[in-house]
Amino acid sequence: MINKKVNNVEEALNGVKDGMTFMLGGFGLCGIPENAISELVKLNVRDVTCISNNAGVDDFGLGLLLQNKQIKKMISSYVGENDEFERQMLSGELEVELTPQGTLAEKCRAAQAGFPAFYTPAGFGTEVAEGKETRDFDGKMYVLERAFKADFAFVKAWKGDAAGNLVFKGTARNFNANMCGAAKITVAEVEELVPVGELNPNQIHIPGIFVQRIFQGKNYEKRIEQRTVRQKN
């Protein structure tokens, strides 16, 4: 069994450079690779393109990279919780490519599976389809979307083992799983790193073949974007 374990986040991000394209997993603030994001801030990489469902909030998640003006282009589907993102987008400081959420997930999964492109009806007749090939299938129009190309994919899992096998929890699975193997190098940080053989094979969401580096994460905040509680009677 190939050992994918690295000692720390510094070792896991070896090779990260300015101008690269990164995939970052998570759904809202759920399941985001907090350790990898903090290290990217520390490394002060510049002019990067980030592919993520969201842009974090002003002082957390990808919002930290935005504050430091490290992101040149943001490809995402939901950015409504980040004031700094809005400011940079409206001022022209940040290049933005908004993508339908399902299309974003499929562009990751297509890259993971080795498919160069796929057709989807989402976005036909809107700005999303401008400049793209369209085609009629059985009387319905579809847009050709190309798979993403990224240098690194940073994902966060609940559990993992030294072989890179991963188990996600809840909505953290929405984008993290699709991003594994969708870049040249996939780096997984986990809440609990267990010995090979301890994970139930039937509960593994992503096999280790899709992961190149894995490390034990630490100090997770696990913030909640919008807390809704029931009123007391």
Automatic annotation (TrEMBL):
Assigned keywords, A-Z: Transferase
SMART domains named in the record: CoA_trans
Gene3D superfamilies: Glutaconate Coenzyme A-transferase
A family per Pfam: CoA_trans
Domain of life from the UniProt record: Bacteria
Family note: Belongs to the 3-oxoacid CoA-transferase subunit A family.
Presence of the UniProt keyword Transferase in the record: yes
Protein name in UniProt: CoA transferase subunit A
Keyword Transferase set for record: yes
UniProt GO molecular function: transferase activity
